[in-house]
Design brief:
Layout: H1 2-32, H2 36-45, H3 50-56, H4 61-79, H5 90-106, H6 109-120, H7 125-142, H8 150-173, H9 175-190, H10 192-197, H11 201-217
């Protein structure tokens, strides 16, 4: 019992402190960029020692990027709590969920721009692919997808590309262009089998890398 209580307290401390560190980093990132120095500075801002910061964020900016991406996933799901997915057509479910995820990211636009440049680095692209895949998985599960065959992976692959390219369009061209791009992209979801036949993971990685560049260097 005592050990369980201790573990729970440790987990609570870590979660709460990570959230505070991320909040501090979001304020600093527009000026400092997204890097290990940002993580260290954010830790100092909330009163952590260097050792405590490294304990929470052993991979520096990578861990911080994962924390922000998962926060945005959670905020998107919160925004959708009043939406009955079963009452919507699949096209409408995907549109609503992608829009909610983009809105969550736009609330931290300046920091997300800097994170986009960080994730576009070749050494960080695998992390970028994993994080956007996680976001796509969250959305498909909310939309009621229960596929366990190869479609499970293909659906998430196409939605990953839609998510990141739509965010890039929003940041470079604005809300109106985002809506037009998302409508066209959702047509790919509807033409899923046709798209799947042409899917090449290497091309998807290139497209996501280009979109991350747009996020970093778009207008604003």
């Amino acid at each position: 019992m005592a050990q369980a209580a201790h573990d729970s307290q440790t987990t609570d401390w870590a979660s709460e402190t990570e959230a505070r560190l991320l909040d501090a980093a979001l304020t600093l990132a527009p000026e400092m960029g997204w890097n290990s120095a940002l993580v260290s500075r954010a830790g100092r801002e909330i009163g952590l020692s260097l050792g405590e910061t490294e304990l929470l964020m052993p991979n520096g900016g990578r861990d911080l990027a994962a924390l922000l991406s998962r926060r945005h996933d959670a905020l998107a799901m919160q925004a959708l709590e009043g939406t009955d997915a079963k009452a919507l057509k699949i096209r409408e479910r995907i549109r609503a969920a992608v829009a909610a995820r983009i809105s969550a990211a736009m609330a931290d636009e300046a920091a997300v721009r800097r994170m986009g440049g960080f994730l576009a680095l070749p050494t960080n692209l695998p992390l970028a692919l994993r994080l956007v895949w996680e976001s796509a998985d969250v959305i498909w599960r909310w939309a009621g997808d229960t596929a366990t065959d190869e479609n499970h992976y293909s659906k998430r692959a196409i939605l990953s590309t839609i998510l990141i390219t739509t965010l890039g369009v929003r940041m470079q061209e604005g809300a109106e262009a985002e809506a037009a791009h998302l409508s066209a992209a959702i047509d790919k979801v509807m033409a899923f089998e046709k798209w799947k036949a042409k899917f090449h993971p290497a091309e998807q990685a290139k497209e996501i890398a280009r979109a991350l560049g747009r996020i970093r260097y778009g207008r604003g």
